[in-house]
Design brief:
Blueprint (H helix, E strand, L loop, with lengths): L2 E5 L2 E3 L5 E8 L6 E8 L6 E7 L5 E3 L7 E6 L4 E6 L8 E9 L13 E2 L3 E5 L1
Parallel strand pairs: 2-11
Antiparallel strand pairs: 1-3, 3-8, 4-5, 4-9, 5-6, 7-8, 9-10, 9-11
Length: 124
């Protein structure tokens, strides 16, 4: 079974930082694009950041550019999302996804086959 497990969420004050992690079991990230999505109550799921398993390219939503950084550690089969200067609008459930091969639209949930259960981020 393929499992993606997110962790690192929590409650922080505006301006604070969090680091989310996504670890895969039963699956290797090689040749994958790994993407973080988020979904706030009543809103659609939106792509936040994406990375190829080789470390580049990376993609970011305009709303998080300059504040969030995505990185990968293939030895640990883990992808990180470093979130700085957090704002209340960043409050959402954050999900990790992966797919083999390059997506046409990295920000579209339909492009991805495997999903984690999510980790909650709350910014007040």
């Amino acid at each position: 079974d393929v499992q993606l497990v997110e962790s690192g969420g929590g409650s922080v004050q505006a301006g604070g930082s969090l680091r989310l992690s996504c670890t895969a079991s039963g699956y290797a990230f090689t040749y994958n694009y790994i993407t973080w999505f988020r979904q706030a109550p009543g809103k659609e799921r939106e792509g936040v950041a994406s990375i190829y398993s080789g470390g580049s390219p990376t993609y970011y939503a305009d709303s998080v550019k300059g504040r969030f950084t995505i990185s990968i550690d293939n030895a640990q089969n883990t992808v990180w999302l470093h979130m700085n200067s957090l704002k209340p609008v960043d409050t959402a459930m954050y999900y990790c996804t992966a797919r083999l091969g390059r997506p046409v639209r990295w920000y579209s949930p339909r492009e991805y086959a495997y999903w984690g259960q999510g980790t909650q981020v709350t910014v007040s």
